[in-house]
Specification:
Layout lengths: L64 E5 L5 E7 L14 H9 L2 E7 L9 E6 L6 E10 L4 E10 L2 E10 L4 E10 L4 E10 L4 E8 L4 E10 L5 E10 L4 E10 L5 E10 L11 E11 L7 E10 L4 E11 L6 E9 L3 H8 L5 H19 L3 H18 L2
Parallel strand pairs: 3-5, 4-6, 5-7, 6-8, 7-9, 8-10, 9-11, 10-12, 11-13, 12-14, 13-15, 14-16, 15-17, 16-18
Antiparallel strand pairs: 1-4, 2-3
Helix pairs in contact: 2-3, 3-4
Organism: Gordonia jacobaea
Protein name: SUF system FeS cluster assembly SufBD core domain-containing protein
Family: Belongs to the iron-sulfur cluster assembly SufBD family.
Amino acid sequence: MADPTIPVSVPGSTVAPVNKGELFTSFDVEAFEVPSSREEAWRFTPFRRLRGLHDGSATADGQATVSVTGAGDGVTVETVGRDDKRLGQGGVPFDRIAAQAYSCFDEATVVTVAREVEVADPIVVTLEGPGVDKTAFGHVQIRLEAFARAVVVLDQKGSGTYAENVEFIVDDQAALTVVNVHDWADDAVHVATHHIKVGRDSVLRHFAISLGGDLVRLSPLVRYAAPGGDVELWGLYFADAGQHLEQRLLIDHNQPNCRSNVVYKGALQGDPSGDRSREAHTVWIGDVLIRPEAEGTDTFELNRNLLLTDNARADSVPNLEIETGEIVGAGHASATGRFDDEQLFYLQARGIPEDQARRLVIRGFFGEVIAKITVPELRERLSAAIEHELEISGA
């Protein structure tokens, strides 16, 4: 079940890993210690709002509902038990919540696109939360066999507390675009790990859109199974008063001649009264590791945050660890700030009222990410959602 290419450290060891890739991994929740705020991986996460997901006190008393539409010829949708040998091939849990989710789900949804099949329309996987005051755990696996091509929309909505592992396995010379939309209700707590495994000369375009929920924490981990993989991670998030939205990425360049590009953009609007419990808080951690054997790597990561009001906090930490000098390029950039006064002045000087000018700047800020989404219905939906957020802020 476990992937032998994934390094394993000693549980409970006080010695720091040699690098970000030396993660302890296990399917067993008891192999992990209860996390604390002293750990780098958890120092920004408010444990009191996790409803016991981190310490094992959360128990499954509800059920999330998964449905799949748009699966045509060459696409297989299965509901399987936890003994299915394919589960875990995309990656092994590397923190306690992911291991808890793996240990507690009853059934998993596996979507497989057959070899050389090109799916014309998006495959939509809709997940409905377990409901108010309910907790559930889940598992989804998306598999593209060699030379297949598909677009998958993972649409998550509803209420409750939900932890999950999602696997994306892209075999040799296949191409997958996945758009994950977090459109949760205001009460929802969602913690997810995305295990991404790309094959030889395969292509993955991964979009993470976080709009709703009380607390949402997403951890995508990318590993290359062979040379030539091409991965892009795009993100868009809009945090309102009281929301905590957290993205923690790790791209492990462990094969030669692979590429990665990361662009995440967020906007925040907190409660201007100054109530700290109503602060809008986002966290973006972007880790890129280039191992000694990953010659010919080309990578870049970018995070931009726009503060629309007071009482908003954006933590942005790009990290780049390079263990070989034989690379094409590597870099990162991060910036957090308020409106660009020059942009507003330029628009107002041409007769555009200030409120409309502010809206135009925000639309332009997110436009780069939205334009990359190939599903017209989703682009329209996201544009409408951003307009709704702007109405809330009064921008």
